[in-house]
Amino acid sequence: MLPKAMIVDDEAPARSELRYLLDEIGQTEVVAEAASVREAVEKLKEYPCDVLFLDVNMPEATGMQLAEALTHLKFPPAVVFVTAYSEYALDAFKVNAVDYLIKPVEEDRLEQAIARVREHISLHSKAQRSERIPVEKAGKKILINIDTIRYVMARDDYAYLQTDNDRYFSTVSLAQLEKRLEGHGFFRVHRGYLVNLAMVKEVESVSGGTLLLTLDGAEDKIPVSRRRVSSLKKALNL
Questions:
Q1: Strand (E) positions, the chain?
Q2: Got the DSSP string for 172-206?
Q3: Which of 6, 206, 233, 234 is deepest in the core (most CB within 10 A)?
Q4: Is residue 14 within 8 Å of residue 22, measured between CB atoms?
Q5: CB-hemisphere CA count at 13 Å for 206?
Q6: Which of 123, 5, 92, 40 is nearest to 101 (CA)?
């Protein structure tokens, strides 16, 4: 799967030129463009992406300010600055930028930046998959990888975690687990269910404007509450 990219630049010709180069290289998928930091923040909610190609000097708020804000996320997108100014390079790496390109951007230099982005995504993906969470089974404490969890189901003040071949008990509430799993692709579809979006195989519409989800490796169908249908569809790009 190609890394999803957003281009953030207040100048439309600059966005068009960069999009053309990215399409020519063909190693990313541009899912959105933004002309300001504020617009980028709004677009990120609708179009989660793996990398931002980000200008520095923009009206109201700068690209540097956006990049600094992103460092507070658990799993922020990679940032590649694309700017006409060389003097901000040191500041760029202070906010963990993957690369810093000077306009006009040369195609081979952009390819190098994309290679760095892909390496960055791979390393962070491995780190994310390697995270584990403590559960209980037959009176024993067990650590399971977060990416093996299909869904989490509330039971009073406790919860059950379903993997592809087993169900585990947790003394932690669903609300606490939701915080623990933040940034790992889980979505609260119902007051009693937390679902791993990467495991959603089928979405079925049912009466009353609600949905039922079928997940890979799980027999149970998961209900979606009516008030969460719209936000879930956006999260799944439906």
A1: 4-8, 29-34, 51-54, 78-83, 99-102, 132-137, 140-145, 151-155, 158-162, 167-170, 186-190, 193-196, 200-206, 210-215, 221-224
A2: S-HHHHHHHTTTTTEEEEETTEEEEGGGEEEEEEE
A3: 6
A4: no
A5: 13
A6: 92
Residue labelled with tokens 């930091």: 37
Distance from C-alpha of 215 to C-alpha of 196, rounded to nearest angstrom:
9
Q: What is the pLDDT of residues 3-29, one digit of tens each?
A: 999 999 999 999 999 999 999 999 999
Max distance between CA atoms of the chain, in angstroms, equals 63
**Residue 157 gets which letter from DSSP?**
T
- 3-state secondary structure (DSSP) of residue 115: helix
- Tokens matching residue 17: 């030129």
| C-alpha count within 13 angstroms, C-beta hemisphere, residue 167 | 10
The two three-digit tokens of residue 184, written as one number: 């790992």
Which DSSP state fits 125?
Answer: H
Residue type, 24: E
Q: Are 235 and 213 in contact (CB under 8 A)?
A: no
pLDDT 10s digits, 104-114: 999 999 999 99
